[in-house]
Amino acid sequence: MHILPFGDTAAYMKFGDGINSEHQKTIQAMMHSLQQEPFIGYIECVPAYTNLTVYYNPLLVQQHTRTPSVFAEVERELSARFAKLNTAQATAPRTVEIPVVYGGIFGPDIEEVAKHNNLSVEEVIAIHTSEPCLVYMLGFAPGFPFLGGMNEKIATPRKSVPRLKIPAGSVGIAGKQTGIYPLETPGGWQIIGRAATPLFNPANEPPTLLQSGEYVKFVAVQEEDITWR
Questions:
Q1: Where in the chain are the domains?
Q2: CA-to-CA distance for 33 and 35, rounded, in angstroms?
């Protein structure tokens, strides 16, 4: 683990280079420690695939520093916490089921995904719904989950020409990743279906349905089974 300054108000904790669930367990444990027992000056932390960015108020940290610099004090605090982490004691992550209507007007690229991988459309759906996917991080658009753990049998490159408008709830594949568009936005992922479950609402607390460290389980349903919002 390495800790680097990220400007004068944040520290960047790097846990490794490979994207895997073990790094994510460590990131989640570190987040939980900071949120449950924040150090003086702590503001928030933002998780990503292999790192955690910790934001702080340097003026508050400076008032209680034991070291020559503000960053050195934050580095000391984070290093001490990391040394005491026990990922085995972490709470079991939540799994959120997301109903999806696959194919047709809701998944215009599912046949392309099937063709690319020498599969039938039915096989693509079966594989996509077979195992829960880990939420590594949120980004790109509010509430957009970057998911890991998708079976590589349905991995498909992004579209060569992105669409200017993808409907909210669209479920896509890009390379070895899968994700859900929470808002209508441009994008180049291969769209295989659509979910009606809202992923982002600024009136909620938290405003995003999914959080990093949780799991998503896709469930295939028919259009008549969905209540569109």
A1: 2-84, 95-225
A2: 6
Query: Helix, strand, coil shares of the chain as percentages rounded to 5?
Result: 30, 30, 40
Task: Give CA–CA dist 227/221, Å, rounded.
Answer: 11
Closest CA to 124 of 198, 169, 178: 178
Cα 102 to Cα 113: distance, rounded to the nearest angstrom: 12
107/191 Cα distance (integer angstroms): 5
Core vs surface per residue 166-192: b (16+ CB within 10 A) or e: bebbbbbbbeebbbbbbeebebebbbb
Cα angle, residue 42 at apex, residues 37 and 48 outer, rounded to 5°: 90
CATH 2.40.100.10 fits 95-225, yes or no: yes
Q: Mean pLDDT over residues 192-211, rounded?
A: 92
pLDDT digits (tens, 9 = 90+) for 21-74: 888 889 999 999 999 999 999 999 999 999 999 999 999 999 888 777 899 999
Statement: 2-84 belongs to CATH 3.40.1050.10 = no
Q: Which residues pair with 12 in a beta bridge?
A: 4, 53
Q: What is the pLDDT of residues 85-120, one digit of tens each?
A: 876 656 778 999 999 999 999 999 999 999 999 999
- Among 217, 153, 152, 155, smallest CA distance to 180 is for 217
Residue 149, by phi and psi: left (phi above 0), alpha (psi -120 to 50) or beta?
left
